[in-house]
């Protein structure tokens, strides 16, 4: 039977520096050389529904229809750690009955067919959801609609009108050829799609400068089973909710986003990089909240993440010098901050900081789209990596950080598994920032322990007055944490083809 | 019987310069000294519904309930020219049966009562709607819910959490006392409310710098008849549609906006003003679309508006010198551009332009909230002023402008009334801008001719690919021009208490 890769990206190996390897070996009691899993799972035996195939063939060209088990499996999971751990353990999700790849012109007929047959449909973009957006409860036939052939492309007046199926990296490359940028750079850039950015209400790594996806989106075309809503291409309007307004954060429930009109702008001419070590996380928070002009990228690692970064970047950090400076400055919980901007004036040396020069920021940028592959190396060694992110106002930031770390440790000790948690702040606003927690566990009860950790962290976010996600969308995994009146309001917009009854 | 003022603001008189007066006299064939109307209408005799009064008294303190005809009339119309012309002609709108002014704590009980009695409710903020938002078709009892007592106020981390009933000017003054600004400055500043800004999806005059209301709004509290949706106070989140997302542009249909969390920031320290005369409108468009940093205010008047401005600002413009310079430069259709910003570097002299110094921009800013009162002077003399605004991408701007002027003239000639139209561009984006048309007519068939002109202009907006409004909301008057699938989608969110069935 064929196998399917269930880890992020196509890169088979991500180099980790020996010092970081030793740190991981020590935390988890493993030997790095012991590879326990290759990241693939077997494709199960799945019968084909010939009637469905026949019916779809009446609507779409044959090459736009797949009923083979491999395609169906690939289009039935995202990259949440819960899903990957499940697949690894042989717990498969519900698998769709077919995958279709319509062009824009096919959608009207396809949706009429789905509507008449009451076939539940999942919209599939880049497949990089980390919150279970592709999971569903089977009620009958279900198909996946891939946006892969939705590739409209035209540019007018600093607006790129693009098909939702464009992958970020491809689109950016195409825009760059005309000297333009879309200004949206999520870590998933190489795999995620424009439609996915809108559907999850994503934020890119340079959102401080370019804004998040809602700030970049002029309009959208949303194909619903009750009609097409096509936004006017104009700089702004106030004629009530637009297609883009409900498409943003819709997670596929309100219809298919087929086109998005994105703001584009000239590529910056210059680029400046700086990194510093600060006394501690609180000093970093204090520095960030007082920033006058916020750099495009400003990223503060907590002491734990800084420790790992120092171990994993020995060459680029001039590590011995840095460690001696940290000692001489008396920094007991040193924290790394990196900054990148197109304007040198926006990069201001923090008070009482150790300058690391350009290199850590340059390295960070060089690896920005590959870093998720670091997690793959953990998966292969029996460790489950995961992340959760939220946002907080400045007043709440330090307490949110410390309580989240405590909650992780409480659960770890209670349930008796090995693990670590570290954090960074990025996506900075005058009001507060996004805070990102990266954690990893190794356990004999992987899914249960992972679920318990996630539950504790998410409940802590809510207790601290923060949302469950800053830029990933709640998906199916975090929906239960969203306030119920809000969910009820959202449900009013659901398209019966694309939504499950709650 | 008492009378009620149906014109904007409280200012009884707005001084117009003699040269501008002569221009208006000549266009309309009137004598400025002949006042035909004082701007007031009689309050009709309206019986009180004692049962309703009794029932409301069980829910609210007596001083929060008004059934007197004057209050009821005041809360039953907005300031669209269609409404004012109707009132002037004795065609009264549907008048509400009661006005209530709940505090936040009263809303739960009030809405339960309205729901149980199926009483239709209109939410009343500043009453400055120019698109008939307060008009409704009577189906039974209807009350107006004034937001006047919703005055929460607290500030944390550059977020002001404020009741929706705050009037713009009052709120800004209060924020200014702490050195802060909300950055939202609509022309209606002194009368419109925060709730109204959100409900109409407004844009302030300095939106180039501060963004429009959607860019300033962190969250909202929306009280619906099926529950309260209270957004988390955090810098950003992606947990699907929030209360603020549906509140923006909701025009009172989806529930009562009781609180809004607005971004606030430090008041600017400096302020720079410049004005120039350009060769023609196209040169101005070309200048604006190529702007690198867009000033907070950049406002380009077309030749018609410039002519009126020159006449109406003789002193401040040093008019003789300007006219001679215009002649010597050979500008046949000279256009005024004013710019205001907190950063001098963003104000760049346009090529081939005549500098007018600071004064026209300073004057514009000084009168920014009083200028609507100029229209009052026309109303009093039998002339109907009106405005319509839209937005367009740069490629479409010149044609949208010229065709709209032609459409106005076509209707004017066809129907045989006197009138003028003039225009300016403001709210500038990299993608295009808002374009604002101010027109006035004098006719024996006021409402019919006004409706015909509006119809022609709005249809032209749509033909040219533009929306029906950039920042006023479609209200009831322009809703029919909004695309029907979009209206159907919007209808899914309607709260039965606050919405009419379409």
How would you describe what is shown here?
Two copies of one chain form a homodimer. By secondary structure, chain A is an alpha+beta fold. The first copy, chain A, is 34% helix and 22% strand. Chain A has 19 helices and 20 strands. In chain A, α17 packs antiparallel against α18 (446-463). Chain A is globular and about 75 Å long. At the A-B interface, β11, α10, β18, β20 and α19 of A face β11, α10, β18, β20 and α19 of B.
Number of strands of chain A: 20
What structural class do you assign from the helix and strand content of chain A? alpha+beta
| CATH topology tier name of the largest domain in chain A | Uridine Diphospho-n-acetylenolpyruvylglucosamine Reductase, domain 2
Radius of gyration of chain A: 23 Å
Mean pLDDT of chain A: 96
Strands, helices and their partners?
Two copies of one chain form a homodimer.
Chain A: E1 3-5, H1 18-28, E2 40-42, H2 50-57, E3 65-66, H3 69-74, H4 81-88, E4 98-100, H5 107-117, E5 120-124, E6 142-146, E7 153-156, E8 159-163, H6 168-177, E9 180-181, H7 194-200, H8 207-210, H9 213-216, E10 217-224, E11 227-230, H10 243-247, E12 256-263, E13 265-266, E14 272-278, H11 281-289, E15 297-301, H12 303-312, H13 314-317, H14 319-329, E16 335-341, E17 354-357, H15 359-366, H16 372-379, E18 384-393, H17 394-415, E19 418-428, E20 432-442, H18 446-463, H19 484-491
Helix pairs in contact in A: 1-12, 4-18, 17-18
Concise account of the structure shown:
The structure is a homodimer of 502-residue chains. In chain A, 34% of the residues lie in helices and 22% in strands.
